[in-house]
From TrEMBL:
Its cofactor is K(+). It is an enzyme of class 3 (hydrolase). Exhibits a very high intrinsic GTPase hydrolysis rate. Involved in the addition of a carboxymethylaminomethyl (cmnm) group at the wobble position (U34) of certain tRNAs, forming tRNA-cmnm(5)s(2)U34. This is tRNA modification GTPase MnmE. Binds 1 potassium ion per subunit.
């Protein structure tokens, strides 16, 4: 079935040097050809070429814009359909006018993510690769981009297909046992082989699931909260990490009244960094609200950077807060090393086993040590995506968890000498669940939901 030709603006809407209107579908060349005037018609130009000309309003013969039209004929295109990309100046009015002309002369407005959806439906990419496209667009660090790029190139697909093939091999042996039940040695050998191969698949699934924490962090960012008493250097730390003066820094305690959020790249790890109001008892109504929000942020954070001042002794309030987060991922930062020491570091080390980093934010000292500690805490000291297959998508994680449960049931049943055809049910379920990761046998409703999260024009 031939799909309608779709059109959309594929670049951010607004003033810019260049903007692109993209068409995809069986009539893409015909529709664009009605609007384009150049030395050759678009039907005459070679595929995968870019051609200088003008967009004309066919109804008035008015020249609308000077353009470069890229022509890409199926099947070697992103969607495996004919594609025309009209490159024009980035004025809002101009780009909208060209889009409206394409719609007026036969195209339909593309839905969010519909170009990538067509790439999936036409078999160019699997569902995990399609999701990798959006992860790549949204990535906030080089490492996150590398993970998404690997998924776009089919790294996860190859991994999943290998696991599914292993399960098919097991099922083939099970079929031998079912077809020839009179041979006792076949049943025993089949069960032994099933357990050996199923354990291998289970190990690989668990290996992927183990990577999900790091993958999710690189995809979504590590929720990190900076806490401490007023005027210990929390906002200075935020400003240093993001290399900007977003937070107001003064000598007046209680300056930060609300929560500030910023993304920052720390050794390839994206931190969703939250600067909070200083936690202390206060009669100021506005500051009190900020303190309550700080306490709430503390309970939701995946990493807590607790800032102490080197020139102030440890207080009961500090110890109360540190006691409350003993089981969390905490790095204690002793700031203001340039000032005379009043803090008993030995007491801090004896009472808690949190990593301690000493800094002087104003002098830019110690921040590299902090970045190393964060990488060590969550990635064993080395953040690398070069040869790794990371699981970062929540849908993938859920399906892998279900797959792990199903194959665990199969292994347990085999150990209990459950009839082999019953064990087969859980193996088939594992195979099907793994298939859903890459888009085998998924519902149309799920496909629509996933691609609706994409931006227009992609």
């Amino acid at each position: 079935m031939q799909l309608e030709t779709i059109s959309s603006i594929s670049t951010p809407v607004g003033e810019g040097a260049i903007a692109i209107v993209r068409l995809s579908g069986i009539d893409a060349l015909e529709i664009a050809g009605k609007l384009y005037r150049g030395k050759k018609t678009l039907d005459e130009v070679d595929t995968h070429t870019i051609n200088y000309g003008h967009i004309i309003d066919p109804d008035t013969d008015e020249v609308v814009e000077e353009v470069m039209a890229a022509v890409m004929r199926a099947p070697k295109t992103y969607t495996r359909e004919d594609i025309v990309e009209i490159n024009c100046h980035g004025g809002i009015n101009t780009i909208n006018r060209i889009l409206q002309l394409t719609l007026k002369h036969g195209a339909r407005m593309a839905e969010p993510g519909e170009f990538t959806k067509r790439a999936f439906l036409n078999g160019r990419i699997d569902l995990s690769q399609a999701e990798g496209v959006m992860d790549f667009i949204r990535s906030k660090t080089d490492e996150a981009s590398k993970v998404a790029s690997g998924q776009m190139q089919g790294r996860l697909k190859v991994y999943i297909e290998s696991l599914r093939q292993s399960i098919l091999n097991i099922l083939a042996q099970v079929e031998v046992n079912i077809d020839y039940p009179e041979y006792d040695d076949v049943e025993e050998a089949t069960t032994e082989l099933l357990l050996e191969e199923a354990e291998k698949v289970k190990t690989e699934i668990e290996k992927l699931l183990k990577s999900s924490r790091q993958g999710r962090i690189m995809r979504e960012g590590l929720s990190t909260v900076i806490v401490g008493k007023p005027n210990v250097g929390k906002s200075s730390l935020l400003n240093y990490l993001i290399q900007d003066n977003k937070a107001i820094v003064t000598e007046v305690a209680g300056t930060t009244r609300d929560i500030l959020e910023e993304y920052v790249n720390v050794n390839g790890i994206p931190l969703k960094l939250v600067d909070t109001a200083g936690i202390r008892d206060t009669d100021d109504i506005v500051e009190k609200i900020g303190v309550e929000r700080s306490r709430q942020a503390l309970t939701e954070a995946e990493l807590i950077l607790y800032v102490l001042s080197n020139n102030e002794p440890l207080t009961s309030e500090d110890m109360e807060l540190l006691d409350s987060v003993r089981d969390e991922n905490v790095i204690v930062i002793i700031n203001k090393l340039d000032l005379d020491s009043e803090l008993d570091v030995a007491e801090l080390e004896n009472r808690y086993d949190f990593p301690i980093v000493k800094t002087s934010i104003t002098e830019g000292k110690g921040v590299d040590d902090l970045e190393d500690r964060i990488a060590e805490l969550f990635f064993g000291g080395q953040v690398s995506s070069a040869d790794s297959t990371y699981l970062s998508n929540n849908r993938h994680i859920s399906l892998l968890e279900q797959s792990n449960s199903a194959i665990s049931d199969a292994i347990e049943s085999a150990h209990m000498d459950v009839p082999i055809d019953i064990v087969q049910i859980d193996l088939v379920k594992t195979w099907e669940l793994l298939g859903e990761v890459i888009g085998e046998d998924v519902s149309e409703q799920l496909i629509d939901q996933l691609f609706s999260q994409f931006c227009l024009g992609k």
